[in-house]
Amino acid sequence: MSKVQIKVNDNGSLRVTGDVELIDGEGNIFQTKPTFSLCRCGMSQNQPFCDGYHKGKFESKVRAIKDDGQE
């Protein structure tokens, strides 16, 4: 199985790439493509997918903590 990648876009969505099954709280499967974007701001009219409504209205730049090997 190939590795799924989820990219946290600056000021935007979560970009999902790879073979993944997206299900709702009742176990129903959403139809997806091999690459799709999930809403992170809560403003999309097409939840759980991003529709771009956030542009200019949502700010978030998340960065992973770099492991420098020191403790």
From TrEMBL:
SMART domains, per database record: ZnF_CDGSH (SM00704)
InterPro entries registered for this protein in UniProt: FeS-contain_CDGSH-typ, MitoNEET_CISD
Pfam families referenced in this protein's UniProt entry, alphabetically: zf-CDGSH
UniProt GO cellular component terms: cytoplasm
GO MF annotations in UniProt: 2 iron, 2 sulfur cluster binding; metal ion binding
Keyword Iron-sulfur: yes
Identification of the protein by name: CDGSH iron-sulfur domain-containing protein
Taxonomic lineage of the native organism: Bacteria, Bacillati, Bacillota, Bacilli, Bacillales
